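dumping this here before i forget
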Amino acid sequence: MKIGVQLYTLRNYAKGESGLESVFSKVREMGYDTVQYSGCPAFPEEVKTETLKKIADANGINICLTHVPVEKIFDQTEKTAEEHLKLGCPTVGLGGMPRPARTSPDELKKFIEKMNVAADKLSEFGLGLAYHHHDFEFNKCGDERIFDTLIREFDPKIFFTVDTYWAKVGGEDPVAWMKKLDGRIRDLHIKDWTDKVNFFVKVFLRQKQLMCPVGAGKLDFKSIFAEGKRQGVNTALIELDIAPKPYVALQQSTDYLNKLFPDKSLI
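structure:
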């Protein structure tokens, strides 16, 4: 299992072609050769797919996964597939479902049906489709939790991008949740969780828990990686949705993982 970087972490630095070149270069300098492309200039609308591929290749980096707007996945499936093939990216990712599907069983059903159709079309191109969750999927929509509905009704071809932090916030143990999705995980999002928050966070932000760099919180990443290895998960992508200093947080995560697996036995 490779460790990579979710570029959403560094999205504020990836402005235009020069910004992308800098981000890819710095990620490579940190020792990574695999990334997820998300939160950065959209391809081919803002940056040509050929340009993005050129930047990635120049830095020896593989793009293993994306996040693409739901409208493009549903309404421009073939074009989306063709662009991913140009990138050499095997998996089309969706970062979350439309809001109506989160509260309406009818809308959720429509969403699932469209996802299944898209997965069929993408499979014809040799591509996978992956759904990334947050914590709201652990809430009920109708008589059962959204996630339980997705597990049952999604075509088995659809992968789940398990997020260790959001699984914990949703009330689940990340390792136990990975076991429940055995065989349906191609990539992980890894970020840590803590309930050790300061006065400002408690009083002014009204939060009892926060995300933090890998190793800075309370999640058991040795067990998470062991389960990922057992399942044959391809990639664990370091992601910090919110980080005051993204590069510092990424380096902290990197340093922790290097200490946790000095012989690379689980990576």
